[in-house]
Amino acid sequence: AQSVTQLDSHVSVSEGTPVLLRCNYSSSYSPSLFWYVQHPNKGLQLLLKYTSAATLVKGINGFEAEFKKSETSFHLTKPSAHMSDAAEYFCVVSPPSGNTPLVFGKGTRLSVIA
Amino acid sequence: SQTIHQWPATLVQPVGSPLSLECTVEGTSNPNLYWYRQAAGRGLQLLFYSVGIGQISSEVPQNLSASRPQDRQFILSSKKLLLSDSGFYLCAWSQYRGGGQETQYFGPGTRLLVL
Fold this sequence. Notes:
The structure holds two protein chains of two kinds.
Chain A: E1 3-6, E2 10-14, E3 19-21, E4 23-26, E5 32-38, E6 44-50, E7 56-58, E8 64-68, E9 73-78, E10 87-94, E11 103-104, E12 108-113
Parallel strand pairs in A: 2-12
Antiparallel strand pairs in A: 1-4, 3-9, 5-6, 5-10, 7-8, 8-9, 10-11, 10-12
Chain B: E1 3-7, E2 10-13, E3 19-26, E4 32-38, E5 44-52, E6 55-58, E7 64-70, E8 73-78, E9 87-94, E10 104-106, E11 110-114
Parallel strand pairs in B: 2-11
Antiparallel strand pairs in B: 1-3, 3-8, 4-5, 4-9, 5-6, 7-8, 9-10, 9-11
């Protein structure tokens, strides 16, 4: 069975400083992993996804994530936070079998302080 | 390109009233469709998913139901709303391609407040 743990429910950073949102996963097979972002009262937007190609994945808005199998981690990073990055972020794992639901983490709320 | 629509965007309903939320997808065929709910301060809860017309899987037993009358239409319903049904309802679609590489794309959501 797959599971996802987002280690921080809330992260606060100053504008212009680096962002680190942590995610650990558990999977019996090589997983596909995703990060989504949700701004207030909006739907979820795909930031990036890992599908067993390059372990360092670049996404939109300057975000990237590194798949580390030895640590079962898929942390999301950004070198310099912008005020518009303030949102909820979800780490997601896709089961290997077809037509079965994704497994979502509980989310991390990112606050950016001016 | 594919787009996903949800309506209404917001809805205020009295307890005990019926509910119908609609989701439609354009630009693709035979998508997998999903209904999620986000209660205040909580993560996403998968309610229903569908892999084809008339095929509905329920993840959480409750007073909600879902139907898929057409390939790209997914409806969430209730006969009698409860206060606990308040939340943000998200519809999503995906195209299963095998190998566990399913990517879901979300609609803009419907904010439901039950009073």
